[in-house]
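Study this one:
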Amino acid sequence: MPRIRTFALVAGVALLTRRAMRRRIDASPLWPLPALDEPVSGQPRSRALRLRVAGHETVADGVVRLRLAGERLPGWQPGAHLDLVLPSGLVRQYSLCGDPADSSSYTVATRLIPADQGGRGGSREVHEQLGEGVEVEVRGPRNRFPLADAPSYVFVAGGIGITPILPMLRAVEAAGAPWRLLYGGRSRASMPFLEEIEKLGAPAGRVTVVAQDEDGLPDPAAFLAECAPGTAVHVCGPEPLMDAVAAALPADCTLHLERFTPRAATDGNAAFEVELRRSGRTVTVPADSTVLAAVRAELPNTAYSCAQGFCGTCQQRVVEGEIDHRDELLTDEERAGSMLICVSRARGERIVLDM
């Protein structure tokens, strides 16, 4: 009898030991090396929601508006955007253009970008596959383009760049703040929400519409010449338009930008090494390539989506090294310890990632 009790005790201890060891190995694939904190690569940056497409409406040539329905949705402020996880797995960002007071739905709009104009398939999926009744995963909202606190406002929008601007116009109009808008597009038929915007600006003439097929290109310098001191200038549109506004900005005004694409990479890129701490490998990133490309050559399952520094799918924790951030997404706090490896680089000869 004592032998049976001893055997049972030993077997129980062995079982507990195996379970503890399995938990330890699962926590750190490189066990017995110390486990690092949970990596952030490919993980949602905020709680994902499953919403239903309750409305799919064409609001301008090549532009559809989606209404995504849910219940008790997280609140947002003008300038915020959502991440949409499309049926293919692509992640795309779209500015919210509905009513922040509506907690039952989010509204976004997107223009169809053909492949021969640089489209990579995301907008076509929205137009062709996100019909009414389809469920879609949504992350956010997040806001990297908040409405500034200012005595007066000037807004400049190019084409679909009106989407984050529209809720701002409603907000400043409701607050009684002085504002003006310069709205440009290829044609009036291609410019979404034009009727609502012109009603908002009437009868004070606060909205200047420039249709390229009728009027040529907008002239931001002339429009900004009348800015009062302290005016907040909010701009969203193509890079040349934002560059023109920045060049003409009066010294006593503030500039706030929302970009369609990441900033052009700075000159003088240099090669550097990336140590993948968890995998025990080191890769070289050539001057004309990216960390993402170098890492995926070794770890092909590394998650990514937009490859432009917007969606956050490829975010990685940085263990050592100085980061040259080139994304349009991470907060200052997030940048202290992580990077988006699709666009950002090392500010030096070496960086260590928790991979």
DSSP finds nine helices and 18 strands in the chain. Residues 293 and 300 are 9 Å apart (CA to CA). Confidence is low (pLDDT under 50) at residues 6-17, 20-45. The longest strand covers residues 48-60.
